[in-house]
């Protein structure tokens, strides 16, 4: 049975333009936009009309970096696909791209099947997968081709975490060569994990065990060095490269240099690096453990370079790297040894609001907000124009956003399954009011109306930015 929804009177903001327009939705897709008040728009009828007067109407957010239920450090990320996608919807994100994990000694297929099993029937918004390559060998390299045919078109490698996810330069080069041939995109966690492990060992031997030392041993120069090395390996392989969670000014400089040389090199940062700093890692009474993630939070001076990179397009995407661990019982595993604190922060619910605050603070424009949070991640990972924009034929993933609502971020009110907020007590202006996922209302004027199982797996094409 055909259903039509009409969103009237809002300011439609996409990466390309801003217009006072009405949006007509039918059978889960956007079918037309027309200037508000025109005879075309006035002639539309619908089963449901949403009044967006005084509000923005924006595409649903695309968070291209989440880790639901990720095993790490002897525990699991505290959000599973059910709680995590519900929280994402509350925050105006309607698509996530999560990371399926290949375990050492196992195939890519086994890892992908395990993540499908975790997610199937549990998501309230649409989802896709990247693949973490933990064991690069002839068999897994061949499997990359098969996964691309199935819509898993990006592969993450780690220069960090020796003994867990780490790949050496030879393995990285082989994977990049394969992606050069098959059209896949290599995503890189760029930190020199071998050198970092030496610094960790030395710090602990000196009795430096508090959370703040996590940031001190994972030095910005070792992020920059690994970023530089990854870029050079990608050049040798003739492959594109996407560097995840860039946190350091020196790493941004490496990306900027590569992009000026015309290379297919891209960079992502995350809200924690834009809004938090080593001041948080240094909070007393082990509170700093809440902010342990890798790459680590940097001194506040790095933030200006990240914002500048987002304005100049040397950084193209803001994702969350959402990987929450509760303070009680999980982060506490590292009391007395910062290296045992599970690495990760909650944030999938906060990204769109924090970036809207950045618009008000003058860091980015309104359209750039939508570009870095919706359109570019969709293009980068082969989801556009199905996702990331509001145009005829696009999925009706739509957010009615109140730019004037004032809210205080807090664990008391968030919907992520974690016992603290990384932004506790921070007041921001702007709030999600209503969210549609493929035309179905999942947040209705700040009431959750979605359901587990509405979200579907979404195969992806290859990166749409390659030259």
Instruction: Please provide the count of β strands.
Output: 18
Spatial shape? globular
Strand count, sense and closure of the main sheet? Answer: 8 strands, mixed
- From the structure provided, what is the oligomeric state, counting identical versus distinct chains? single chain
Global mean pLDDT: 97
Concise description?
By secondary structure, the chain is α/β, with parallel strands linked by helices.
What does this entry look like structurally?
- Helix 4 packs parallel to helix 5 and helix 8 (220-237) runs parallel beside helix 9.
- Strand 7 and strand 8 (75-76) form a beta hairpin.
- The protein has 14 helices and 18 strands.
- The longest helix has 18 residues, at 220-237.
- The mean pLDDT is 97.
- Strands 1, 2, 3, 4, 5, 16, 17 and 18 form an eight-stranded mixed sheet that branches. Strands 6-9-10-11-12-13-14-15 form an eight-stranded parallel sheet. Strands 7-8 form a two-stranded antiparallel sheet.
- With 467 residues, it is an alpha/beta fold.
């Amino acid at each position: 049975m055909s259903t039509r929804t009409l969103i009237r009177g809002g300011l439609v903001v996409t990466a390309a333009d801003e217009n006072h327009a009405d949006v007509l939705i039918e059978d889960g897709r956007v079918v037309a936009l027309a200037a508000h008040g025109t005879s075309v728009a006035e002639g539309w009828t619908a089963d449901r009309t949403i009044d967006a007067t005084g509000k923005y109407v924006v595409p649903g957010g695309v968070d291209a970096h989440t880790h639901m239920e990720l095993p790490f450090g002897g525990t699991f990320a505290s959000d599973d696909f059910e709680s995590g996608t519900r929280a994402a919807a509350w925050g105006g994100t309607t698509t996530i791209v999560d990371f399926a994990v290949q375990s050492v000694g196992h195939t890519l297929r086994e890892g992908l099947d395990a993540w499908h099993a975790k997610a199937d029937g549990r998501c309230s918004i649409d989802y896709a997968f990247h693949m973490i390559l933990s064991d690069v060998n002839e068999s897994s390299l061949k499997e990359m081709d098969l996964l691309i045919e199935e819509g898993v078109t990006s592969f993450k490698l780690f220069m960090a975490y020796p003994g867990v996810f780490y790949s050496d330069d030879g393995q990285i080069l082989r994977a990049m060569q394969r992606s050069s041939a098959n059209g896949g995109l290599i995503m890189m966690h760029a930190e020199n994990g071998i050198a970092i492990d030496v610094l960790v060992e030395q710090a602990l031997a000196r009795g430096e065990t508090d959370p703040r030392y996590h940031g001190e041993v994972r030095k910005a120069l070792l992020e920059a060095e690994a970023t530089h090395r990854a870029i050079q390996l990608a050049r040798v392989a003739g492959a594109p490269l996407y560097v995840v969670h860039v946190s350091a000014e020196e790493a941004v400089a490496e990306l900027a240099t590569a992009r000026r040389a015309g290379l297919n090199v891209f960079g992502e940062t995350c809200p924690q690096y834009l809004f938090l700093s080593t001041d948080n890692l240094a909070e007393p009474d082990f509170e700093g453990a809440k902010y342990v993630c890798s790459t680590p939070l940097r001194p506040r001076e790095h933030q200006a370079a990240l914002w500048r990179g987002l304005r100049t397009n040397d950084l193209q995407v803001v994702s969350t790297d959402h990987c929450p661990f509760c303070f009680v019982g999980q982060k506490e595993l590292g009391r007395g040894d910062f290296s045992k604190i599970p690495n990760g922060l909650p944030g999938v619910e906060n990204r769109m609001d924090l970036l809207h605050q950045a618009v008000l603070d003058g860091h980015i424009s309104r359209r750039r907000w939508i570009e870095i949070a919706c359109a570019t991640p969709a293009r980068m990972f082969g989801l556009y124009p199905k996702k990331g924009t509001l145009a005829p034929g696009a999925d009706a993933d739509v957010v009615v956003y109140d730019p004037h609502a004032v809210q205080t971020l807090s664990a008391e009110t968030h919907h992520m399954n974690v016992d603290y907020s990384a932004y506790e007590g921070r007041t921001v202006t702007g709030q999600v009011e209503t969210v549609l996922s493929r035309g179905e209302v999942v947040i209705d004027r700040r009431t959750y109306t979605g359901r587990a199982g509405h979200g579907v797996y979404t195969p992806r094409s290859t990166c749409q930015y390659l030259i």
